Amino acid sequence: MASPSDDIPSITPPQPYKIHFDQADIDQFHRKVQDARLPAAPLYPGLPLDKRDGGAAAEFNPKAFPTLERMKNMLEKWKNKDFKAMEDELNQYPHYTTKVDWCDQLHFLHQPSTRPSAIPLLLCHGWPGSFKEFLSVLKPLAEPEDPDAQAFHVVAPSMPGYTFSSPAPTPELGKFTAIARLYDGLMTGLGYTRYGVQGGDWGSIVAREVARRSRADGTGCRACHLNFLPMLPTPLGKTVSGALLVMPEWATLAVGKYMFDAECYRALEKSLLYVHHGSVYYTVQANRPSQLGFGCIDSPVALLGWMSYFTMGLNVKEDSEERGPDRRKGEKGAIETFFPNYETLNIDWLLDEAWLYWVTSSIATSFRSYSDNEHLLEFITNSKYKIHVPFAYSGFPDEIIDAPLRWVGKYGNVSDLRWYAKAPTGGHMAAAERPELFVKHLRAAFAPGGIDAVSTPGGPKSSFGPNGDKGAIFTEGSIWRKGGLWDDERRKGER
């Protein structure tokens, strides 16, 4: 089980926090963008560009991305941003800071519910996101319109080294284990002795460790929901399966056809697509963070150029013919988009994230999620890190790595899988892309028995649909449940 209760760090009294963008920083940003030295001609004019949408040119060759035209368009849009209006908008939300152990300033959002049956819930973001991922879900989670729907007391911290949270003073304290300890201290210090946790991207890794820290006395994290679950399927043993990841892609897929059924083979194919073609940024940020960091801290153009990889599916102009597909392969199978266009996750959202990284000088310290956590494979496979609290997973079709149900149960390093479902739309940053689905999946997973009004078997037909159905909540036939995440805690309360 987890660490002893005396390992919970204390927090200082939380203080309301108001975001302020200094006018001098805004002026410097505009000078740097205005004086940017862009190339006079495309950097890689000879590379073939994809054609689609009736022959409209697309610039999704990773080697040529971003194109000069796209970079100019993004910079034009960025420099016309009203950062003071953004400041006012962000300050509409409940921000706080506290000191937790070595973290001199831990920034977090805290949206308590007025419902007496609300469940404390810790939301964990990853990279290249921030607390901003969760702005659209705070109030819907805390105050649902339906009086019978499950409500939550929501806490969403900024990971140390991101935006308004202090970075770890040493690489050891930048590890997910140390960050999970801080988060556990934060929740306990806020008075939430029992709570659930949710995470995606690096937030899923931290959330797993928060869940693993659940204490034998019944306090701490009591349930875990993830929307990102990297794992290593090991039907032939960890050594052989690990070798599959470093073999040539074609060879791994050939072997995989004999190892897996159709669904799991598709998941393997998608994982390899990311590992071999979509994870270049991961390698650089893990191994050369300083080389990249100095330029990105100083130059908004360098920062946007680096982060532009994640804008491949986002329209820069409303009338642009540059449209990213939901998920497809380009030259040599390269991943062409992390984020398709969504109402709440679009180019404006990413430009705002880039601004937060630049104005807080935190882009390089955010890279430490990668450079300080080099033993990720060990964490997701070693039984030492197994999650023993009730566990749930929501899969989104545009996620970079899929987690089939049979893999989660066998290889997910969890001992109590309670609930599993797939959404028909959404992807890697589900809370920002499809906030309404994210909220409904969480409510269903935490509902008594894992069943609520929208997920009832034989319930509303509008709740279920095929992949791509924008009006549905769950993919047809995707829900599997053994119970609700909070059932054990409810039973304790009835005693």
Automatic annotation (TrEMBL):
It holds the Pfam family EHN. The keyword Hydrolase applies. GO terms for biological process: epoxide metabolic process. One of its GO terms (molecular function) is epoxide hydrolase activity. Residues 14-134 form the Epoxide hydrolase N-terminal domain. Gene3D superfamilies: alpha/beta hydrolase (3.40.50.1820). The active site is at residues 201, 370, 428. It comes from the Eukaryota. SUPFAM superfamilies: alpha/beta-Hydrolases (SSF53474). Keywords: Hydrolase. Coiled coil: none annotated. Belongs to the peptidase S33 family. This is Alpha/beta-hydrolase. The lineage of its organism: Eukaryota, Fungi, Dikarya, Basidiomycota, Ustilaginomycotina.
